[in-house]
Amino acid sequence: MQSDAEIVKQFEPKPITEIAAGLGINESLLMPYGREITKVNIEALKTPTKKKGNLILVSATTPTPAGEGKTTTTIGLGQAFTRLNKSVCLALREPSLGPCLGMKGGATGGGYSQVLPVDRINLHFTGDFHAITSANNLISAAVDNHIYHGNALNIDPRQIVWRRVMDMNDRSLRKIVLGLGGKMQGIPREGGFDITAASEVMAILCLAKDFDDLERRLNNTLVGYSYSDEPIFVRSLGITGALLALLRDALHPNLVQSLEGTPTFIHGGPFANIAHGCNSVLATQMAMHHADWAITEAGFGFDLGAEKFFDIKCRMAELDPVAVVLVTTVRALKMHGGMDKSQLTKVNTDFVNSGLENLDKHIESVQLFNKVPVVALNRFADDSDEEVAIIKAHVEAKGIAFAESNHFSKGGEGAIDLAEKVIAASKDAKPFDPLYDLRDDVVEKIRKVSKAMYGAKDVAFTKEAEKDLRHVEHLKLTHLPVCIAKAPSSLSDDPLLHGRPRDFQVTVRNIQVNAGAGFLVVLTGNIMRMPGLPKEPAAMKVELLKNGEIVGVS
Known about the structure:
Elements lengths: L3 H5 L7 H7 L7 E3 L5 E3 L13 E7 L9 H14 L4 E5 L4 H4 L8 E2 L2 E4 L1 H5 L5 H21 L6 E6 L3 E3 L9 E3 L10 E3 L1 E3 L4 H8 L3 H9 L2 E5 L4 E3 L6 H8 L6 E5 L4 E4 L14 H10 L2 E5 L4 H16 L5 E6 L1 H7 L12 H20 L4 E6 L6 H13 L3 E5 L1 H4 L5 H11 L15 H13 L3 E4 L1 H12 L7 E4 L19 E10 L4 E6 L18 E2 L5 E2 L3
Parallel strand pairs: 3-16, 3-17, 4-15, 4-16, 8-11, 17-18, 18-19, 20-22, 21-23
Antiparallel strand pairs: 1-2, 2-14, 5-6, 6-14, 7-12, 9-10, 12-13, 14-15, 22-23, 24-25
């Protein structure tokens, strides 16, 4: 089969104005970035619509280095709906430069299920990440500048909780010392960087309903505490107007298309292991407003992105999917069964059978939200019919719909069976049940998620976490939902435990207050909010050709 880059060259994208017109979006509401990309003004949500806006969520089993293809499946499923002549629109997250140039690569799909233009989306796109990074770092600069010029707010430099960000993997910046060099260089203090995808500004942008809501959330953002332990919020810094100016264009969702012309909103990019893992509420609403079927995804496995999708995003934005797709692969199940990555192309039914317990846990997790999943097997070329048959029989024995999907090699045509089963499943949709009540105390919320989603025996809190809990109580923010930052490669907080770990304890290291976003970030295990680059990062494969073409980005 040809490479992703070679496949892309076979397709001539339609003008983005034509894609927008197909959704019924007036050209006056478009903010074009060339021929293939446009932002759509959020005023488009105010136009009358007769679209049904049925929402479909795509999630997956626990990720492995072999790759599950959740985004590729989402795109392929959308293209299948297009082939069935359904009114459909996708809503996806924006790629981050860190993983794109690091280990994971881009996030525009693969094979015959990709979104265009691949290089622009994976690199700078429309500048949303730059705007978010700039807004985040303006807050940092304003805090340090305020202290330097007399500190009228009495900010305690030892209790500044706001961190700088950049959209790159750089472990050297996780913990740094600021303000060195003498009296004119600022006040020396400890600080550090997170990746932009983990910035609270990213979460705020992705959860904001409009500009008024964006302003409210920014004003309510906690930056630190005074010497008398009183909270300091962004509203006290006098920079909210500048923050709104920086984020003005970024708030409007971006519209592109798949290889087969399926309209796709790509907007917002929080990671699910260190943030809430969903594209923007506005992009999801745009897709639902302009199509009968809106298909979206949640990052990493169901235990991370999808849990946050339901307990945070759906709760805040009053959303409720009519169907849930759970993506898995033969390779992933073999790895969860104990097979070494180097052996995955070899047929081995024993490892498949052993790995099914990971799939079982995710099926159970979907059902905890009062939903019934459709299991999509993303078929790889070296999967044997015998291995696929084992998974199919196992899933169907549970009364769960199963579809083998060949969207990678066949595009939308290869996902038609999956699309038809998703449509059938949507007819029996029931309202989702959250895992916890917002009135539960914070410890109980964390325990409920850890036990129900991860299968943990119990949860332990470090002394730092207990101190953070007291801050949450002092701020009267115990009613907020929890956003648990956890290793994505395991159901537990230990990244090396595959399959379905049992009898383990989740350790909560810290709890960070994201009052503007409207949730509490719970850091577990050794999870880092600034990734590092691998020994041979993907950046080493990227080249700019003399004709202006960029290769190595996918």
